[in-house]
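Deliverable D5.2: sample structural annotation.
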Amino acid sequence: MLYYILFNTFLVALGCVLPWLHPGLFVVGLRGIDMVDGKLILGLALIGFLAASYQLLQKRGRYWVYGLIGFLILIISALDLYTFYQNRYPIGPGIYLAALGGLQLTGAYVLVLLRQGRGSSPPV
């Protein structure tokens, strides 16, 4: 499960480097790290990546951190997507990767909660 979380945090970080807005007639092309929201999402992804790496070394689990980080990334990227759609901006692939990674991090936490409810320990 931790390798899946590491992959998703890498996916979010990659989405922040890719373009969020394609250049158009009245729109400047922007990458995720060119915007404040992209920097915030990249910071959250790096925190999640470091926490998962530390957890792999220590063999202890605190999965609520990934659920919180994934939910925050999902909310921020969904608000950005809504704004881009509303203003009819040409959307790039980076914002979709960030939203998908946030959704998968949140889903991984939900799966850990369901497994703990059944009495089995979460996999490493």
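Annotation notes: The mean pLDDT is 88. Residues 2-117 form one domain.
The annotation will be released with the project's public dataset once the embargo ends.
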